Amino acid sequence: MAGKKQIESAVSAQDPLKQKGLSVTDSRRKILQLFMQQKGALSHGDIEKKAGATFDRVTIYRTLQTFLDKGIIHAIPSANNAILYALCHEQCGPDHHDHQHIHFICSRCKHTFCLDHSVTPDLHLPKGYQAQDIDVLVKGVCKRCNTTSK
Amino acid sequence: MAGKKQIESAVSAQDPLKQKGLSVTDSRRKILQLFMQQKGALSHGDIEKKAGATFDRVTIYRTLQTFLDKGIIHAIPSANNAILYALCHEQCGPDHHDHQHIHFICSRCKHTFCLDHSVTPDLHLPKGYQAQDIDVLVKGVCKRCNTTSK
DNA sequence: TATCAAAAAGCAACAAGGTTGCAAAAATGA
DNA sequence: TCATTTTTGCAACCTTGTTGCTTTTTGATA
What we know:
Chain A is an alpha+beta fold. Chain A contains six helices and six strands. The interface of A and B includes residues 83, 121, 123 and 143 of A.
């Protein structure tokens, strides 16, 4: 395969996959790399397009699930029927994702970003309701779109 | 059809459908009625189950889209790939939904509720980011589940 | 580096969710 | 009641996601 060398060279000695106890495979390296390059959130479909015909659809699904389980990526809720995934910046582990950041959806470029801006919304839930986890979705115009073409 | 009388009797003179300039049909009445009874959010699948084999799948999709467009219901983002819909309590119109309420997802009974609790999260977005709309998703235990079985 | 068990990838087939075009049926207004 | 417009139902299709099983690859060991 032509792209293999390229993939390998981009992986440093401190392989995040090994750190999480995962065996290192082409698909995992490639998908992890896509997330690191992107800086935004990716859907399964995005990855399928970017990875070309390199990997089977099922492999991508399973890799995403594995990354989720290991706390490498987290899922971002959306209203358009396509789950988005992004790298976890904090130290998330299996079974506990701890994110207190905002998910920002740009209505112009349609990208979704994680803003590492620890926000605790001022919650006053009605009596009886007990909060465990909070996700703040903000729709608006992102930095790039705001500066590029006003 | 056996259930038709029942549906009609539940519709008062002040038909919300007519108010929004929609023609009144069985499916629209029935689906609107389901939302009013439910008090929680419904997915397309939920409606399909509750409506039985009364309506075609496609009709339900189109009715939901129409209700969305007219500001009768709003979509709630979720992380499990099933868009939820709930009635708009405030006066929403075509092309502008204005909700400042929390969406509460109960991790026990799996229902999603709109808490009409006007919350403005303390947002400090990084420079350049411009917020238009905010959606707060809270996962936790709802009132009923908290009191019923502790 | 050759070997081997365990893990992951690929393949096929399937299920669910969602969309589109078109003909038949129902709702609205005259 | 009639004609026009809107909506429904149907069929067919596409996308997204899942499952079982076989083949390939990985990582550890000799």
